[in-house]
Amino acid sequence: MWKFSQTPAPEETDGRRNLSRHITLIRPPFISSMHSYSSTVTPPLSIAYLASSLLAAGYQVTAIDGLGEGINQIRIYDDILCRVRGLTIEEISNRIPLKTDIIGISAMFSQEWLFIRRILRSIKTRYPHIPIVLGGEHATALPEFILQTCPEVDLCALGEGEETIIDIARYFPGDCSKIPGVVYRDIHGRIIKTQSRPRLRAIDDIPRPAWHLFPMESYLSSIYSHGPHIGRTMLILATRGCPYQCTFCSNKSMWTQRYLMRSVKDVVDEIEEYKKTYRIEHIAFADLTAIIRKDWIMEFGQALKDRDINVSWSLPTGTRSESLDNDVLKMMAETNCRYIIYAAESGSPRILKSIKKQVNLDRLAHSMKQAKENGLKIRCNLMLGFPQETRKDVLKTILFQMRLAWLGVDDATFTLFTPYPGSELFQYLRDKGKIAEINDGYFQSLLCLLDLTKSSGYCEHIGPRELAFYRLAGLMLFYSFYYLIRPSRIIRSCRNIFLAQKTETAFEQKMLEMLDTGRISKNKIRAETVSSHAGG
After folding, report:
1. Which strand ranges, in their side-by-side order, compose the sheet holding 233-236?
2. Contact (CB, 8 A) for 219 and 41
3. CA of 315: how far to CAs of 230, 261, 365, in Å?
4. How far is 11 from 121, CA to CA, in rounded Å?
5. Which residues contact 47 (CB under 8 A, 6 or more apart)?
6. CA separation (Å) from 233 to 182, 222, 309, 336, 373?
7. Which residue, among 234, 470, 531, 191, has the nearest Cα to 346 in the 3D structure?
8. For residue 495, what is the DSSP state?
9. What is the rounded CA–CA span in Å between residue 263 and residue 355?
10. Could you give the residue ranges of the DSSP H alpha helices within 335-463?
11. Quick one: pLDDT at residue 440?
12. In a 10 Å sphere around its CB, with 0-12 CB exposed, 13-18 middle and 19+ buried, how is residue 200 labelled?
């Protein structure tokens, strides 16, 4: 294991930063269950922002995109029960320059940990003297666990990373006590947590993502998208954080509850820049909670009109309904908004209260009705399997789902609750002994999100098999009703999936992705299945 240097921080003798340092940033491949029906193939916003901050500070950067550089490569790792899309571990290691001073790896989602751990072990074996930094939501939620169980990691960066990565480049592996917002292992093996780092406030001043370091054409020309595929799509962030307190979300540990919005001008400038540089046709906002203030979205819509940028846009991550009144929805339709996701989570008021989801279902349904009247495609996110959920609560959610189908809502998907580290419900289940220890079995249990053959086992009143049945039955009822009451949608969906290969709804997108994954799988998965003893 690499040991911390006992020499001073790597700075020039006159106190200036050593800008000759070289940082390699790695985005891992996409990891899902073996029978996942979808792959989230999107450009890596997080490390693109980190790379741009390092470049702006004068450091040298290499970016390795484990997904984008191998979009059409799929392998199965049978010992950890996952499917991996992207570069092999060996290919990732081969791309690390020998001149690298620090390796930074993004660990956003805890269900990916078992494979990321395998990447870390391979890299440390090959480059034992290069320190490894881990960042992202998983690293923020479980830094002590990571440092205790994975000796290959030398430091975990917590929360927002643009300022932290600059301090890491400046001081690490010297005096890490000078770096706020990190957890590290000192020369005696003790795990040390430094003081918290305040959230960035002037977010308009953050350098734009360094997309020139990434294989953007691979993303722009693929059929995969963050939401429906509506042409050459670029991800963008207009806000940071979320002011709400949903107990199933790890947002609070990553971002705190501070919610910050970029200026409309800065966002529209970025969109205009992408249209000129990458010939984009569509913008997908990747915000945790995209719209809270009506005045912001109205100003944004007017700016799109005034500049005549002529790109479509969508909110495919989820948003609140409070600001989506008829005036806002009309503006969104007029500026070519193509898709909105409403985040209801449950059709049971009792469950909504228990998970601190401040949603009025009647107002939410009214907003969705108005959205459809304005010609927008919409989806509602629903979830099953919360710890305190009963069969009565599940029935209310399914009935609410059918109400949405009657209103014309285009997608109402069911996911199964999974307890993410950093969330309030994760701690609740730890205290109750439902998660006895954090081990490989726990991380594998998180892979049920995109797999209809898996289920969640954290509900106190309903077993996993029964939950899986409700999930499948609800989806079948919704989409059967959706197409039966509007048969013309069958023709539209067939045309979109099989001819145009551009989609308008999440259902169409998942079907398109399944067909493409099946094509790749036929040629590659079985020929390249990895045994439990293989390294790459």
Report:
1. 233-236, 282-285, 312-319, 337-345, 377-384, 411-416
2. yes
3. 13, 15, 17
4. 29
5. 25, 26, 27, 63, 104, 106
6. 34, 9, 14, 14, 26
7. 470
8. I
9. 32
10. 349-354, 361-373, 391-407, 424-432, 440-445
11. 94
12. middle
Q: What pLDDT does residue 257 have?
A: 82
Residue type at 408 in one-letter notation: G
The encoded tokens of residue 29 equal 């491949």
Determine how β-strand 337-345 pairs with β-strand 377-384. parallel
DSSP string covering 21-86: -EEEEEEPPEEEETT-S-------HHHHHHHHHHHHTT-EEEEEETTGGGTT-EEEETTTTEEEES
State the first-to-last Cα distance of the chain, in angstroms, to the nearest integer. 21
User: Residue 520 contacts by C-beta under 8 Å, 6 or more apart in sequence?
Assistant: 72, 74
pLDDT attached to residue 521: 64
Distance of CA 492 to the CA centre of its chain: 29
24: amino acid identity, one letter: T
Q: For 170-174, 181-185, 475-479, which range has the lowest pLDDT when averaged over its residues?
A: 170-174
Q: Residue written as tokens 């979808």?
A: 38
Tokens describing residue 384: 């099953």
- Of 220, 112, 115, 200, the C-alpha closest to 159 is 200
Global pTM exceeds 0.90 = yes
**Residue whose token pair is 């909670």:** 289
CB within 8 Å of 9: residues ≥ 6 apart? 170, 171, 172, 174, 175, 178
**Residue 278, amino acid:** Y
Cis peptide before 173 (omega within 30 of 0): yes
- Contact at 8 Å (CB) between 169 and 59? yes
Indicate the pLDDT class of residue 14, thresholds 50, 70 and 90: very low
268 to each of 116, 290, 370, 507, how far by Cα in Å? Answer: 36, 15, 26, 30
Is the pLDDT reported for residue 112 higher than 50?
yes
DSSP string, 161-188: -HHHHHHHHHHTTS-GGGSSSEEEE-TT
Strand partners, 411: 379
Indicate if the pLDDT at residue 5 is higher than 50: no
pLDDT per residue over 289-302, tens digit each? 877 889 999 999 99
HSE at residue 451, side-chain half, CA atoms within 13 A, is 20
Of all helices (H) and strands (E), which one includes residue 306? helix 294-307
What DSSP line would sit under 496-531, residue for residue?
Answer: IIIII---SSHHHHHHHHHHHHHHHHHHHTGGGPBP
**Residue 256 corresponds to which tokens in the numbers above?**
């705190």
Determine how many CB atoms are found less than 10 A away from the CB of residue 523.
Answer: 11
The per-residue pLDDT for range 54-96, each reduced to its tens digit, is: 999 999 999 999 999 999 999 999 888 899 999 999 999 999 9
Which residue type sits at 186?
Answer: D
β pairing state of 182-185 and 155-157: antiparallel
